[in-house]
UniProtKB/TrEMBL annotation:
Role description: Putative odorant or sperm cell receptor.
Family annotation (Gene3D superfamilies): Rhodopsin 7-helix transmembrane proteins (1.20.1070.10)
Domain G-protein coupled receptors family 1 profile: from-to ranges: 43-244
One Gene Ontology MF term: olfactory receptor activity
Protein name: Olfactory receptor 52D1-like
TM stretches of this protein: 27-50, 62-84, 104-122, 134-155, 199-223
Biological source species: Acinonyx jubatus (Cheetah)
Chief place of localization: membrane
Gene Ontology cellular component annotations, sorted alphabetically: plasma membrane
PANTHER family recorded: OLFACTORY RECEPTOR 56B1-RELATED, OLFACTORY RECEPTOR MOR24-2
Keyword 4Fe-4S: no
Length: 244
């Protein structure tokens, strides 16, 4: 509670406590986190490097995969280094602004991830249900536009989140029972009416992740529909290859 200041509406720093109840095991829990983080860095960077250097991979699917890898790198680099520092050095203190930045980056980039999954599903849908026009529909300009739209959607819908938290009073405590700063974790410790803020965040979550999920399911239903209505067995197995 050191940085907690009664004259201020919000404390200048928050304290992340990691995984509540498992403080004693933090050092052990940090090992898989660290290994998986390093593997994610290595995997995503190799992916970016390979796709960049191999011109035969400059196809819609792989371009969306690159965008996904960048979003993945941002999300895990926003959360994990701070988490490791908390686990290793008991350094749970995080400045208010840094905390809000974490909220924004984690939520906006995970929203973008879901958009990139939807874009990939759309690519497969066109490749299978309209194969002859695939390259005419998914030109580089269209792919760039879709990527930009996904980034803008994530940024626009999630940028209110830090402001919704910024103007809340945190009069009870500055301790966050979580491993990183997250919207609902902060809402929980605020001492004010937060119903509208919660509703906004739930609506945004539905309009992004929820809607993307439904549309991805639809794309697979349409793909299966196409595959099972193909005239010959030959064409069907050909399609199953594309589907993979
Ligand atoms: C990229 O990073 C994410 C974590 O943010 C991880 O889940 C994914 O497996 C990584 N991709 C590769 C190819 O390693």
């Amino acid at each position: 509670m050191s940085a907690y200041n009664k004259t201020n509406v919000h404390p200048s720093t928050f304290i992340l406590i990691g995984i509540p109840g498992l403080e004693a095991a933090h050092i052990w829990i940090s090992i898989p986190f660290c290994v998986v983080y390093l593997l994610a860095l290595l995997g995503n960077c190799s992916l970016l490097f390979i796709i960049k250097t191999d011109p035969s991979l400059h196809e819609p699917m792989y371009l969306f995969l690159c965008m996904l890898a960048v979003a993945d790198l941002v999300v895990c680099t926003t959360a994990v280094p701070k988490l490791l520092s908390l686990f290793w050095f008991h350094d749970g203190e995080i400045r208010f602004e840094a905390c809000l930045t974490q909220v924004f980056l984690i939520h906006s980039c995970s929203t973008m991830e879901s958009g990139f999954f939807l874009a990939m599903a759309f690519d497969r849908y066109v490749a299978i249900c309209n194969p002859l026009r695939h390259s005419a529909i998914l030109t580089h300009a269209v792919i760039g536009g879709m990527g930009l739209a996904i980034v803008l959607r994530g940024t626009a819908l999630l940028s209110p989140h830090p402001f919704l938290l910024r103007w809340l009073p945190y009069c009870r405590t500055n301790i966050i029972s979580h491993t990183y700063c997250e919207f609902m974790a902060l809402i929980k410790i605020a001492c004010a009416e937060t119903r509208i803020r919660r509703a906004y965040s739930l609506i945004v979550a539905f309009l992004t992740g929820g809607l993307d999920f439904i549309l991805i399911i639809c794309s697979y239903v349409l793909i299966l529909h196409t595959v099972f209505h193909l005239p010959s067995k030959d064409a069907r197995s050909h399609c199953m290859i594309l589907f993979k």
